[in-house]
């Protein structure tokens, strides 16, 4: 399973104060030189109804107890100035657990007692970002298939590493 998460013009849960957000081709350019560390730049949710925000599905449904690879595709300035946060929620919308991944992404397991989840991009000193997409890929356990998915997750990280010198 592979799902690409886009930042569309309909995404309303973004940090707007003092930010310049521009769409070029299929990429989003985000700039805010006064962004405080820890600020949530953008959030996507799995339990969003069309009536709430008038957008289609933002995140895929994940299987409980399964492992996934989340990867960021884009450029950030300065390097490593964002973190990806996954928040798991119960049926009542209360936070059960939070996981934080580095800027390039990483592996996570969808916890068994979660009902919904959200993914956020968090600033840790960000000035500029060109966002292409986030990707979620399943990681199979055991057998030959697991090598394929783990390798794909590692390939995504290597590709992103090559693109990080975009601003130089």
From TrEMBL:
Top-level taxon in the UniProt lineage: Bacteria
GO process annotations (BP): protein transport
InterPro entries found in the cross-reference section: Acessory_Sec_prot_Asp3
One Pfam family from the record: Sec-ASP3
NCBIfam families listed in its UniProt record: acc_sec_asp3 (TIGR03711)
Protein name: Accessory Sec system protein Asp3
Lineage: Bacteria, Bacillati, Bacillota, Bacilli, Lactobacillales
